Amino acid sequence: MKTVMMTGSILLGTFFSSGLLAVEQASSGLGERLFNDSGLGSSVNERSCNTCHVGGKGLEKAGHRSDLPSMINICIQGALQGRSISEDSVEMRSLVIYIRSL
Q: Pick from 97, 100, 91: which is nearest to 39 by CA?
């Protein structure tokens, strides 16, 4: 039993110290990666946000919308055929930061 507990502690320590379990912060860089990710929202097709909005085209004024997270989820559910993502998630905050930077 001691050996199992020691091994578990060592493994957890390794994961935490290596950053494998670290939570990524919301950022424009992460938002840009997600914007180009065809797997966003567990999408079932090969589309990404960038498919319809190449380089952010057409979203220049979207950053001023107070309902931007809702609009993002409409696109994820519609065009990407995926599932909406939580409006308070790191992913959504990152997408909002990125779109507002356009």
A: 91
